[in-house]
Amino acid sequence: MSSRIYTVSLKGSEVKVTDDQLSEFAAMYIVSDEIRNRISELLWLDLYIFDLKFGVGPDDVLREIKNLESGEADPQTKPASQFSRKPLKGLWHKHFFSAHFVPHNISNALKGGVLEKLVNKVLDPSKSPIITKEMISELSHRVVHEPIEDRANDNKLTGEWIVFAKHNQKNYYLCCNTHNAGDQMIFDRIESHCPRDFPFVSALLASANA
Fold first, then answer.
1. 0.85 exceeded by pTM
2. What integer pLDDT is reported at residue 26 of this predicted model?
3. How many Å apart are CA 121 and CA 105, to the nearest integer?
């Protein structure tokens, strides 16, 4: 039986990956056979592309999958939630976090004038007529480290989505996608590829969109 070939079109480039390459790639990562059997080939393709093109390590995603399997004990990202609108209604999503997403999380934490207030507070002339090294160090910590620490403590770290389905009281991991990919695009990818691995997905999608 010939290998299946995936073609992924990105801005300015095209990547072709065979299912044999994906199998070799997946074998590099430590995942129990029980969980591995519930991860679609499409999700492994996404991990391959994320790693190759964006520097997002598969371990960042697999860590969140393991958290889901253990009941999300001590999560730092937003809890898993179910899509409520068609066409993804009935499916679930979970954020995963990578250092690649640090700038985005800092931006979220400092928007709405928070950065300006922070700068004015730390560099307050009433504290010192000149800007000291200590003030610069404090500002650096409060702008870069504090937002990440606070968002982690509040379970608000955001990255991209792991999309999964629940079936017979188990999670089946379908794909990874960016927030701006669009629900219809995510649906189309799942509908085109995931029923091959998990036949129940076709009925689940059809039922949710009836």
1. no
2. 93
3. 21
